[in-house]
Design the sequence.
């Protein structure tokens, strides 16, 4: 569809100047004309032709405006009519692809207007979603179900190991090993399938239970979904060190945020929800479908999109009732990654169209696309203690050689994308690794840590200021996570940097002014 | 409930949609992040609020929700043509023509404003319940979304869409003529267009019109009503056929349509109706409904009306659990893999009425005099709630009866302006209703619009353009209006116009912040915003925008230091001792009248009071801010102070306004004397002369000077507030002195020890406390040194008599006595 055609016409304005001489002013005007530009055109007409500035005071501009407006109105109408005529003729002569127009129009109407959209029923998740308020009470009856079955050292294996003596050749050992692996594999497969069956069974049971509860609730009273929670209020697992600040960001209009700096192992933040009896579990469960979610950023290498092993283990300790089991989520993500075409072919695909782009993978793809540093994938959880959402951010920094990065480094930009996603999807509590490392290593000198932390703090601050204009949810709490094996003195140093980088809110002092 | 009553209550309604998200992470041409589309829509929609016509539903508000949701509030009337036709089938030809004519009127008004509707359909044509009045509804969608560029969904009902629009051509008013004709054809032929056809086939049908002539006949045949087509009035058929010409050139313009002879009767009818006296129904109309809709909507909001809650109640804002919409993978480029979009995100064109019942009931008890206040009849006092004026401003601004009364009163006053200027000033001193703040400020600044803004060149490029371009995207961008592209364009025009209109001045950074409040308040009236700024700057910032403004600023800041010493001697002493001088923090305060350091909502309250004071008022605001931070400042060193002021902490504006007002009123005018201030009348004999006090004096003297005239005034009117300290020798004092003055001969005192007791004057502290302490001497230097001593002792309100004791001799009638 050619809607970029333009037409340029000269506008000539004749007038008498203050000495009564006939003058003329001329300007080329391009159609389609934007009404906003009218005044600018008048200025040009007066300035380009050296019209005496005095003429403005003789109200010549008013007359000029009237003339120009009349000219523009007529010509604009002519232009639009002619342009339409051209296209309509082309249509009549079948020079345009009518079917494409029909297809595009239909797609647009069906995809964007509720009136024409195909009505779809609620998805599974949608059904589960409703009543988080009753969802939490389901946590208890099932929590003991599924944690035992994983580790079963084979007794036979131990016995055979004990029988080993000098007479055994390496061949024997190899045989033995092969045998052992087969049995082990067999046992594992059996347990896995049993586990899977059990999980499926539990999910089914849960679903039935929910359905019965919901229909009961509908009979009794209208349903209200909880509005939000402040899960940060109930921190159950005390991290070894932590310090909190309240800060104001913004130059004129100030937004308040909370900053907490703490040292802990990242897996502690993602420990199984049911491991401890505490309010926190209930609180996290209540917040699952609210609009104040909790998220954690976990770094992972790019070699293979794979979540942190300990986290997977934690997530697998109990049945995931609301989402898919983490292994299934990972499988799907891996599939998506394979489908991802290289960036050039998908171009500037939007968040929606990239899904369909993946349906037709380009055959010219060289190798399996891999996520690169700064990309991230997301898993959702209802059975972890302090997070609903885990952002797995790809970072390939080698463990033993701390490098220097700047604010344009992909990991930092990935962090910005995470904050953006968080704002768009109502994640209001976010934990980020403040050194972009989960463990300390010997090469991480105090100087390096200070530099790295300062960079992360400053970038986080910048992104938070920026986020005010994104129009999403405001980040209420940012947690800066330091490795759990950090020294106390270094922690104190880094915590001391927070108030200097972020502007800490002044305490409000109430003074009795009566005397 | 009768239909009429329901109609009364449904005067307002809301529709909602989502703006398009920017794909990934893109930046604009200036390197800054793109403005969200919802903000751009908000900016463009402001213009629509100005449209007022009897055939158009007025736009009232555009609200931006979370995640790009946009809510449009507008007028509503009776019921839609769709419903009306269903309830009264079939409509007579006369009725149809009446509707035809009035809708065409609406389109014509739009095209005069260079707008097109492009979504004309029976749903968007509203009729009063008697079917007499017709209004267009939701006609601004095409304009506010920039022809649909800002929203993901297509605009317009496909059935009524002209063929050229399917080919992607927008903006031609004749497309609306086509739609209008089709809507009328439906009514006349009593059919529904292609009721069972699939969407794609409708598109094919419309495009197929291009190949044949006689769209009307074709439609009639397809819907098995060729008979009705044949029986149709000849003229009407020709009119419709011309409107349904495939080539837009052959269709009439709305203006031409209105002049068609077929409408002669309708025209006569409408004229007759207008001539008729008000029907009894309108007499029974609640008084509130005779007020402008914008005021009704404002009150509705005050009365607890919440558009978002109403939409939620109707299920239009379905909250989808955010966790379900999370993407699975996000690449560095911003591309992401998302689960499918939920249907809650789709465009749902339902209309939600906003009920006025509660508001009507709430205000029904008020006397008619409140609805239509009389300004010049003392028999009917314009105030009915004096006691409310004692309450804090925040409460007054939320009280609906009070606001209603204020809004009605100011509406009257503004209508009478400039004749009512004095009364307006008096009322504004009480408070300013937020709804009318823009025009009220303009009136306080004595603005009289005269069309001069149109004559100023706002486009020719100048040397300051680059700086303006840099400043605009950083000026109060948290505000939706000011951050919209329309807001940027308007601010640029205002700034350029100001620069052009003041060849003697230059653009200093900060002018943008100074302009922002005026633009924010008068977004649709640039001229008023410009003229307000035009008057504001000389009043409070005379000469500040000179290319070399150092002398002006130095004088201003020295005066600020003096006044700080006058009201807060200990604080001034402390700041001076750590050399934390005003140059380090106060320049942006005064150059922008605090508009650079505070968010808009605080500036508005601050300036409400500022507008009533003279050019010295800002100085007191500055002191009030220091006073609020007093305890922190007194315990801070230089570095802490710098850090504290680099990002000013949250200031309680209410307290700041009250404090500054108190200080402003308690300070004699001559104390604030500045050479560069705007002067309305020439100084008199006993005043401080224009150039009497030089900058170096100001910088040397810690205390301000007071004029003999003010001393005389205080002596005459409130001698209890004055403490004159006469520093001359005992002999001179004995010869002649001011009654009740305290004699402390300068030659005898030791100023080394900074304690009042050291002077050994009995009860000196009690005599000075709470008074304006004037140091008088024959030798100026003595007064200066003694005043420094008093400040060091923490004595408040110390000043020096300008020109010394001898000037008191010249006061007539004589005030001096001798022992």
Sequence:
């Amino acid at each position: 569809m050619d809607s970029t055609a333009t037409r340029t016409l000269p506008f000539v304005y004749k007038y008498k100047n203050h000495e009564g001489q006939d003058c003329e002013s001329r300007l080329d005007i391009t159609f389609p004309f934007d009404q906003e530009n009218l005044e600018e055109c008048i200025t040009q007409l007066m300035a380009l032709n050296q019209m005496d500035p005095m003429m403005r005071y003789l109200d010549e501009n008013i007359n000029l405006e009237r003339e120009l407006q009349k000219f523009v109105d007529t010509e604009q109408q002519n232009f639009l009519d002619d342009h339409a005529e051209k296209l309509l003729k082309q249509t009549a002569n079948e020079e345009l692809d009518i079917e494409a127009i029909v297809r595009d129009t239909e797609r647009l109407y069906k995809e964007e207007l509720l009136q024409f959209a195909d009505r779809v029923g609620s998805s599974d998740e949608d059904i589960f979603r409703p009543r988080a308020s009753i969802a939490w009470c389901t946590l208890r009856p099932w929590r003991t179900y599924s944690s035992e079955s994983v580790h079963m050292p084979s007794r036979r294996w131990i016995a055979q190991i004990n029988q080993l003596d000098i007479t055994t050749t390496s061949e024997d050992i190899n045989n033995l090993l092969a045998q052992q692996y087969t049995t082990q594999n067999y046992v594992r497969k059996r347990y896995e399938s049993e586990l899977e069956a059990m999980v499926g069974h539990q999910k089914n049971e849960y679903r039935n239970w929910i359905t019965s509860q919901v229909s009961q609730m509908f009979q009794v009273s209208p349903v209200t979904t909880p509005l939000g929670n402040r899960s940060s209020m109930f921190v159950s697992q005390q991290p070894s060190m932590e310090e909190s600040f309240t800060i104001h960001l913004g130059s004129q209009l100030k937004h308040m945020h909370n900053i907490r700096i703490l040292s802990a192992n990242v897996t502690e933040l993602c420990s199984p929800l049911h491991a401890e009896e505490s309010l926190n579990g209930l609180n996290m469960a209540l917040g699952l479908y609210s609009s104040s979610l909790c998220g954690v950023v976990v770094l992972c290498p790019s070699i293979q999109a794979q979540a942190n092993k300990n986290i997977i283990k934690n997530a697998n300790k109990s049945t995931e009732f609301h989402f898919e089991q983490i292994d299934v989520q990972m499988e799907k993500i891996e599939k998506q990654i394979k489908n991802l075409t290289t960036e050039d072919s998908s171009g500037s695909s939007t968040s929606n169209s990239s899904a369909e782009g993946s349906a037709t993978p380009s055959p010219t793809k060289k190798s399996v696309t891999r996520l690169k540093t700064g990309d991230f994938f997301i898993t959702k959880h209802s059975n972890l203690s302090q997070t609903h959402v885990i952002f797995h951010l790809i970072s390939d920094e080698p463990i033993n050689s701390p490098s220097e990065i700047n604010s344009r480094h992909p990991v930092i930009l990935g962090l910005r994308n995470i904050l953006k996603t968080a704002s768009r999807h109502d994640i209001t509590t976010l934990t980020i690794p403040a050194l972009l490392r989960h463990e300390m290593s010997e090469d991480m000198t105090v100087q390096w840590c200070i530099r790295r932390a300062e960079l992360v703090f400053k970038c986080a601050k910048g992104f938070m200021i920026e986020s005010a204009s994104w129009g999403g949810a405001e980040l209420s709490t940012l947690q800066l996570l330091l490795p759990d094996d950090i020294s106390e003195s270094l922690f104190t140093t880094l915590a001391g940097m927070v108030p200097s980088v972020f502007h800490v809110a002044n305490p409000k002092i109430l003074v009795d002014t009566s005397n | 409930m009768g239909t009429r009553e329901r109609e009364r209550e449904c005067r307002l309604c809301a529709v909602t949609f989502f703006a398009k998200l920017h794909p990934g992470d893109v930046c604009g041409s200036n390197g800054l992040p793109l403005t969200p589309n919802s903000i751009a829509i908000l900016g463009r929609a402001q213009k629509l609020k100005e449209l007022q016509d009897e055939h158009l539903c007025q736009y009232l508000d555009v609200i931006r929700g979370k995640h790009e949701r946009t809510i449009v509030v507008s007028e509503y009337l009776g019921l839609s043509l769709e419903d009306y036709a269903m309830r009264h089938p079939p409509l007579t030809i006369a009725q149809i023509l009446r509707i035809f004519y009035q809708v065409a009127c609406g389109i014509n008004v739009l095209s005069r404003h260079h707008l097109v509707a492009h979504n004309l359909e029976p749903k968007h044509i509203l009729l009063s319940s008697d079917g007499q009045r017709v209004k267009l509804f939701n006609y601004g969608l095409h304009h506010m979304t920039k022809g649909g560029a800002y929203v993901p969904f297509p605009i317009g009902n496909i059935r009524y869409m002209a063929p050229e629009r399917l080919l992607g051509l927008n903006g031609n008013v004749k497309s609306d003529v086509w739609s209008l004709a089709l809507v009328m054809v439906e009514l006349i032929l009593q059919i529904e267009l292609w009721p069972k056809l699939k969407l794609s086939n409708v598109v094919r049908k419309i495009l197929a019109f291009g190949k044949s002539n006689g769209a009307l006949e074709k439609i009639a045949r397809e819907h098995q009503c060729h008979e009705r087509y044949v029986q149709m009035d000849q003229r009407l058929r020709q009119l419709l056929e011309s409107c349904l010409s495939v080539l837009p050139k052959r269709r009439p313009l709305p203006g031409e349509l209105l002049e068609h002879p077929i409408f002669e009767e309708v025209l006569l009818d409408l004229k007759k109706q207008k001539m008729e006296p008000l029907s009894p129904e309108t007499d029974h109309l609640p008084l509130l409904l005779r007020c402008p809709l914008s005021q009704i909507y404002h009150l509705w909001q005050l009365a607890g009306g919440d558009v978002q809650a109403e939409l939620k109640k109707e299920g239009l804002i379905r909250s989808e659990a955010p966790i379900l919409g999370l993407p699975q993978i996000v690449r560095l480029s911003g591309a992401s893999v998302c689960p499918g979009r939920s249907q809650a995100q789709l465009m749902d064109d339902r209309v939600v009425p906003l009920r006025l019942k509660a508001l009507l009931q709430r205000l029904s008890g008020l006397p008619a005099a409140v609805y239509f206040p009389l300004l010049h009849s003392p028999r009917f006092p314009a105030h009915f709630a004096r006691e409310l004026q004692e309450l804090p401003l925040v409460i007054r601004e939320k009280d609906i009866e009070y606001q209603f009364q204020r809004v009605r009163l100011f509406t009257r006053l503004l209508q009478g302006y400039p004749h009512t200027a004095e009364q307006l000033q008096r009322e504004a001193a009480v408070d300013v209703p937020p709804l009318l703040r823009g025009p009220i400020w303009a009136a306080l600044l004595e603005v009289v619009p005269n069309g001069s803004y149109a004559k100023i060149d706002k486009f020719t490029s100048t040397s300051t353009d680059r700086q303006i371009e840099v400043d605009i995207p950083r000026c109060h961008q948290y505000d939706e209006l000011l951050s919209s592209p329309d807001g940027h364009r308007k601010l640029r025009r205002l700034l350029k116009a100001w620069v052009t209109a003041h060849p003697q001045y230059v653009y200093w950074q900060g002018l943008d912040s100074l302009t922002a409040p005026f633009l924010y308040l008068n977004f649709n009236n640039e001229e008023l915003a410009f003229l307000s700024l035009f008057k504001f700057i000389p009043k409070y910032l005379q000469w500040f925008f000179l290319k070399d403004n150092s002398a002006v600023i130095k004088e201003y800041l020295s005066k600020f230091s003096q006044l700080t010493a006058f009201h807060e001697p200990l604080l001034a002493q402390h700041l001076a001792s750590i050399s934390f001088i005003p140059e380090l923090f106060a320049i942006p305060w005064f150059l922008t009248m605090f508009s650079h350091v505070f968010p808009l909502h605080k500036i508005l309250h601050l300036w409400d009071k500022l507008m009533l004071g003279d050019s010295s008022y800002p100085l007191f605001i500055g002191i009030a801010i220091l006073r609020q931070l007093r305890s922190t400042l007194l315990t801070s060193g230089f570095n802490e102070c710098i850090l504290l002021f680099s990002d000013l902490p949250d200031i309680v504006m209410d307290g700041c306004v009250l404090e500054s007002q108190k200080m402003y009123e308690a300070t004699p005018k001559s104390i604030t004397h500045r050479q560069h201030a705007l002067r309305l009348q020439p100084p008199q004999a006993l005043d401080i002369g224009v150039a009497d006090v030089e900058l170096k004096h100001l910088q040397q003297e810690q205390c301000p000077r007071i004029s003999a005239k003010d001393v005389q005034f205080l002596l005459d009117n409130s001698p209890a507030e004055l403490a004159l300290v006469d520093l001359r020798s005992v002999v001179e004092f004995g010869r002649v002195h001011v009654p009740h003055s305290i004699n402390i001969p300068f030659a005898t005192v030791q100023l080394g020890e900074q304690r009042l007791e050291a002077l050994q004057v009995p009860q000196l502290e009690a005599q000075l406390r709470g008074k304006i302490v004037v140091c008088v001497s024959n030798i100026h230097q003595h007064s200066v040194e003694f005043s420094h001593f008093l400040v060091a002792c923490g004595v408040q309100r110390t000043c020096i008599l300008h020109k010394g004791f001898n000037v008191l001799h010249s006061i007539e009638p004589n005030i001096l006595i001798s022992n």
Observations:
- The longest strand of chain A covers residues 7-16.
- Strands of chain A lie at 7-16, 22-31, 241-249, 255-263, 293-300, 376-380, 389-394, 427-433, 477-482.
- Chain A touches chain B through 110 residues (CB under 8 Å).
- The mean pLDDT of chain A is 76.
